[in-house]
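Follow-up to my post from last week.
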Amino acid sequence: MNIQTKPPHTVAEQGILDSYAQMMGQLPGDAPVTAARDKLLGAFSAAGLPTRRIESWHYTDLRNLLRALPGAASGAAQRTDPVVRGSVVLPLIQGQSAEASTPEGMDLTPFIDLLASGEAAKMLVARDADDLVGRLNGTFVADGYRLTVAADQAIKELVEIQSVQSGGQVHNRFDASFGAKSSATVIERHLGDEAHPGLSTAITTLELGDGAEVTWIILQDCGVEDQRLAQLNTRLGAGATLKVYVVNVGGKLVRQELNVDVAGEGAHFDLRCVNLLAGDSHTDITLTLDHNVPNTTSKEIVRTVVLDRARGVFQGQIRVAQIAQKTDAQMSCNTLLLSDGGEFAAKPELEIFADDVICGHGATVIDINHDHLFYLMARGVTEKSARALLINGFVDELIEELENEELIEALETHIAQWLIDHG
Amino acid sequence: MLEIKNLHARIAEDGTEIIRGLNLTVKAGEVAAIMGPNGSGKSTLSYILAGRDDYEVTEGDILYNGESILELDPSERAAKGIFLAFQYPVEIPGVATMQFLKVAMNEQRKARGEDELTTPDFIKRVKDAAATLQIDPAMLRRPLNVGFSGGEKKRAEILQMKLLAPQLCVLDETDSGLDIDALKIVSGGVNALRSPDRAIIVITHYQRLLEYIVPDSVHVLHRGQVIKSGDKDLARVLEAEGYTGIVEAAA
Ligand SMILES: Nc1ncnc2c1ncn2[C@@H]1O[C@H](COP(=O)(O)OP(=O)(O)OP(=O)(O)O)[C@@H](O)[C@H]1O
Ligand SMILES: [Mg+2]
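User reply:
Got it. Predicted complex:
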């Protein structure tokens, strides 16, 4: 038998174990749910936080990066206006669902109800031995929403899941299923508080029936000291189209995992990811994308702006199964590195077992184009504004692809604000 | 308005001298044509006027309205009224043409202590200017210069010049790439800007442009110096005889 001496728990690891002990009896759920939580925590206790020795965490040495847990919630979290006026807001104040109006055509259940009834027990499992996010979230998840859209339903209203946190810990689940030929656009927004650092985890599960068309936007607007670990898992039915937007404009330590199973013929997956990184933050986007059937397509574009001493990571793994002929998968990762102290690591990987496919990936790291800057300045645009225009242009190309004008404008406003704050 | 005195300038990166003791004076109200063989330094001169930092001035001075502009960055020069219509306008993906125009117009106004334009006023100005230059408004919905044809880019430069109403206009081979009709339209646009308090420098290889924009003076640039100046007839002589005679006479 191979006996390894495991290092003692770090302060943060011990803090996580202690948090669970303190919450004993307070977390929602029946006996099977509690058993599932206990099991996940046991696995966490044995494995600890992942280090760079774990391949999927190689560029994000969580054991080193997650040094301490935040203090208690400040109690200051409150609802705010949605990104797009008139959206239906599904609030989560300090992680707890509150009264919400239901978008027309959608069924809505607070996740706390699914925990209480035990229905959620089977969902509290880790994906694999290295699934730290699954373990932590499954151990502590207290609420969230289940969204169900019946077949053929087109949800006209924009839906905003609005999670507002001010310090403390927040652990949520979003479990959405979209019936055949249904459609919807959902913004999953997480807001932090600059004055009160917090830790949050979220797991989002999207199940798309045949022909469903869904746009899912993750807007991560954490405070500069927040730590966030998030995961999105999705499965696309035949002919379904999923567009995922990830916009990261905050946080000190951020990991966004995406696990995509393109499971139905004719399905298309899109990822557009905009990362605006400043300070000494660390932001990691880790994607696994499986093309498991013939005739599917996918396109991922990650654009990152790096300022100060910020570090960014993109790991993108595309796997094309042997039967998945005629797959067309394109992945690109472009970084605008604007400071000497900043860093970006890109690790694209293609594992292709089919022979008749078009797959490609590219990664570039660039600086502001000198000719572009001169051109703008020669028209009287100050250097500061010219740089802002060019940085904005670099990421705005992705935002412009959204079809909803109001949404484009709202996201552009967020990006513009970030540029003003960090210009 | 513009006095260039014994200007020496080199490429910052490798120190190669391109402008070698250049003298040129352009008065308010004047249209000056600069001609000269390929590689003689015409575009370099225009870049140096606009303030491009790839070039270093090692000697001499550039006075604009009596003041040296060498210490000013390109945006400050533009705000003071210097405009360069580029020989090769760059394509800038991601930056919407309208947004760019608005920022440029308003930043210049701000630098001069004027109020920002209201959106309707701004849109009206752009529409009117585009119409006189026969620019399709659909073009302005695209990112800046992206996918514009060569001639469209040149027209867009003149559009910007109209909107920014500069005092000193430098047009670097604006005629190249224009078809005959466009040449007339663009020349009309430039002529409309002629005024007693504005100076225009037209860099060109061809007499034809100067039939439309009739210059008050013509200067021949060779190896970084003005080797001959004259009136509009000098351009005709050059067209007929080429540069060899003048270059040899100056040597
Ligand atoms: N940044 C640079 N790097 C290297 N060489 C340069 C640079 N800028 C100018 N030069 C050189 O300086 C000389 C003058 O170039 P410039 O573009 O000013 O010529 P021009 O008179 O405008 O020519 P044309 O009529 O072909 O437009 C050329 O030999 C050119 O190669
Ligand atoms: Mg030239």
